[in-house]
Amino acid sequence: MIFNMTLLCEMVSIGIFTGAMYALMALGFSLIWGILNLFNFGHGGLYMFGAYLTWVLVSQLGMNLILSIFLTFIVMFLMGMFIEVLLIRPLGKYRGRDEWMMGTVVVTLMVAIFFEAGALSIFGGNFKTLPSLIDKVLQIGSFRLSYQMIISFALAVFLIWVMWRFLKSTKSGLAMQAMSQENEGAQMVGINPSFIYILTFGISAAFAGTAGSLLAPIYNIYPGVGWQAFGKAFVVVMIGGLGSISGTIYAGFLLGIIESFSNIFISVKWTPVISFVFMIFVLLVRPKGLFGIKEG
Amino acid sequence: MKLFQLHPFLLHKSSSLRNVAILFVALMLGVLPLFIKDPHMMHLMILWLVWSIVATSWAVVLGFLGIFHFAQIAFFGVGAYASALLTMSTGVTPWLGIMFGGVAAAIISLGLSLPALRLRGPYIAVVSLGFSECIRISTSNLEITGAELGIWGTAPLWQGCGKTGFYYVILGVFIIVLGFLYSLLTSKFGLALRAIKQSQISSDSIGIQIYKIKISFFFLSAFFAGVSGGLYVHYMSGVSPEIYNIAHMIDVMVMGLVGGLNSVFGPMVGAAIVFFSLENLRVIQDFRFMIYALVMILIMMFKPDGVYSLIDYFFKLADQYSIKHLNKRVGTHTH
Question: pTM of whole model > 0.90?
Answer without folding.
Answer: no
